[in-house]
Amino acid sequence: MRNQVAEKKLEARMIQTNLVMGSSDMVDRERNQKRSI
């Protein structure tokens, strides 16, 4: 059971970092678009 809890926490952390990375990725894309215009 302990393993499952650890895996869930790891998964949640991965999703969190992915969300953070994704949001910064979107900001970078918007900046790049403004530069190219």
UniProtKB/TrEMBL annotation:
It comes from the Eukaryota. This is Uncharacterized protein. It comes from Corchorus olitorius.
